[in-house]
Amino acid sequence: MEADLDFDPVGAAALCFSSVDSTDFAQTVEEVEAILKAGEEETGTDFRLYEDSHGWEWVVLEDDDPEDLVTSIHFAADEFIERGYGSRLLAAVFGFERDGDRAYWIYSFRRGAYYPFAPERGRNQNDRILMKLESVLDGELELEPDKEYWYPMWPDREGGHPWE
Q1: Which residues span the domain enclosing 12?
Q2: Rounded to whole angstroms, how far apart are CA atoms 25 and 29?
Q3: Is residue 68 part of a domain?
């Protein structure tokens, strides 16, 4: 994405999930935290938990190395799946920026595919960036073919994405 589109990673990614009011789920989240804590010591990937006003829970990861972010998201998601909570995973979100523009690749766990998100002010998407992202990375990533499933992940408030 850096070479073809001149977008740079923002140094953050996030895993979004919905909680369950159960002891077992709480233990699963604690296990995810333990895994990420071990990874933090090895790779330097910082993490924190965040709950937005929509009721979604987020594991927010910060690291200048995009590969470390992908690995950490993968480990966290695998733990939810292995413990029987894969259906609670909504999305993994990876951020990029260029000249003040933000773009995101969102992985939908329910659809098993990626799609772009390019927000602008006023809850609009930048169609030019969306089309460019799609054209350049089609074939590189498993893209969601049905654009009806390209759900924009708007923040719960201005500047309210967990990584901002």
Answers
A1: 2-149
A2: 6
A3: yes
pTM higher than the cut 0.85: yes
List, for residues 83-133, the tens digit of each pLDDT value: 999 999 999 999 999 888 889 999 999 999 999 999 887 788 999 999 988
CATH, residue 79: 3.30.70.1130
Q: How many domains does the chain fold into? A: 1
